[in-house]
Amino acid sequence: MDIQFSTEEQRFREECRDWLHANVPADKRPMDAADAIGFDKAWQRRLFDAGWAGINWPSQYGGRGLSIVQQVIWLEEYARAHAPWIGANFVGVNHGGPTLIINASEAQKEYHLPRILKGEAIWCQGFSEPGAGSDLAGIKTRGRVEGNELVINGSKIWTSFAHVADWQELVLRTEEGSQRHRGLSWVICDMHAPGIEIRPIRKISGQIEFAQVFYDDVRIPLENVVGGLGNGWKVAMSTLSFERGTGFIADQVKQSQEIEELIDRARATGAINDDRIAEALMQMRAEVAALRAMTYRNISEVVRNGQPGPEASVIRLFTAELGQRLDRMGLLLTGDDILDFRYGDDNHIADYLRGFAGTIAGGSSQIQRDIIAERVLGLPKSR
User: Fold this and answer.
1) Quick one: which of 6, 117, 344, 361 has the most CB atoms within 10 Å?
2) Are 211 and 200 in contact (CB under 8 A)?
3) Beta strand spans in 223-277 (E)
4) Cα separation values, 354 from 108, 259, 323, 328, Å
């Protein structure tokens, strides 16, 4: 596959590579969100000060105002340099901020976007509920309008980074008696507001990254509504399109590195002589190349329309399921070392355990297949 870049884009790639080579931290990022929050904020601030935060965000909000293609080049080089995961900044940088750029008021953008890029404000996502996971239209958390405020009651679950967050992209029902997609609103929720209770959830890998959040008469100003009351479904779809379409580009680049590392390890241990392992590695290497081609096609969609289309679900589904296959192969090639695993280790065993979330985050694989069938292929609804 021959993807052509302009001379300017090639120079930009070299600039990215040189800066990362000189600045990637030697220390590894701590695994727990609470332990890593200082690391995440400091690294994000370092990126901002050097001009590497918000590559394609508008310059008036702290970004560089460059193209989405240059943003992708940066993410590719970032992954190749083994730079640290942006951790607690993920929600704000990868889909909260982009959602604000295309949907928020000028006042909302001026206040929040620079703080996200500087690492001064951590965001979390308040979409899933105990009875409404991937089915966003089943949301029951409610916001009652009282004067110039929303009074919020309900709960959210699987909220990434809630226990370290300052703000939340919160979707709730604001029209009494509304059903399904109607009557939802997308709200900027202050996570330090009275009435919010946060209960952290420990993952199978031993880390605490998620939480359940309870809202008991939480008061949020109406000026924190993004896109207007009752327009939450439209705004939330843009959030999910960024999460599914461009939010995981770094993961896709990382997969291209992982497959080559797995092949090298299989050669070093002799496992490559097993035809089943060799065939599986060959298949995954081909799939990684196909995923890169799909990613660039998706970026072309963003260039044309400003945000990813429903085709982003193809990439999200492919990335998640390929990631799990790579994790299983990494576990297989680990051999007897699997017996020495301890919670807190960061290795192929931890990758395997973390990987179970891959086919759930951003909408389960079943939801992604529904979107592909209905909105990409035009098939009749399954329900």
Assistant:
1) 117
2) yes
3) 225-226
4) 34, 18, 10, 11
Provide the 8-state DSSP code for 361: T
Rounded mean pLDDT, 127-156: 84
Model's pTM, two decimal places?
0.79
Cβ–Cβ < 8 Å for 315, 283: no
User: Where in the chain do CATH 2.40.110.10 domains reside?
Assistant: 124-231
Q: Write out the residue limits of the CATH 1.20.140.10 domain(s) in the chain.
A: 248-376
Catalytic (active-site) positions: 243
Instruction: For residue 32, give both structure tokens.
Output: 């727990």
Q: State which of 79-93, 170-184, 308-322 shows the largest mean pLDDT.
A: 79-93
In DSSP terms, which residues pair with 188 in a beta bridge? 169
Q: Which part of the chain has CATH 1.10.540.10?
A: 7-122
Residue 17 to residue 92: CA distance in whole angstroms: 24
Is residue 160 left, alpha or beta, with left meaning phi > 0 and alpha meaning psi from -120 to 50?
Answer: beta
Let me know if 23 is exposed, middle or buried by CB neighbors in 10 A (0-12, 13-18, 19+). middle
The domain defined by 7-122 folds into: Butyryl-Coa Dehydrogenase, subunit A; domain 1 (1.10.540)
Please provide the distance, in angstroms rounded to a whole number, between the alpha carbons at the two ends of the chain. 39
Which DSSP string do the residues of 114-168 spell out, in sequence order?
HHHHTT---EEEE--BTTBSS-GGG---EEEEETTEEEEEEEE-S-TTGGG-SEE
In order of 1, 46, 63, 71, 273, the CA distances from 55 in angstroms are 26, 14, 6, 5, 44
CA atoms within 13 A on the CB side of 223: 5
| Amino acid letter, residue 319 | T
How many Å separate Cα 371 from the centre of its chain?
18
pLDDT per residue over 46-69, tens digit each? 999 999 999 989 999 999 999 888
Q: pLDDT at residue 356 above 70? A: no
Q: How far apart are CA 101 and CA 113, in angstroms?
A: 8
The highest-level CATH class for domain 248-376 is mainly alpha
Supply the CATH classification number for the domain 124-231.
2.40.110.10
Ramachandran class of 50: left when φ > 0, alpha when ψ lies in -120 to 50, beta otherwise: alpha
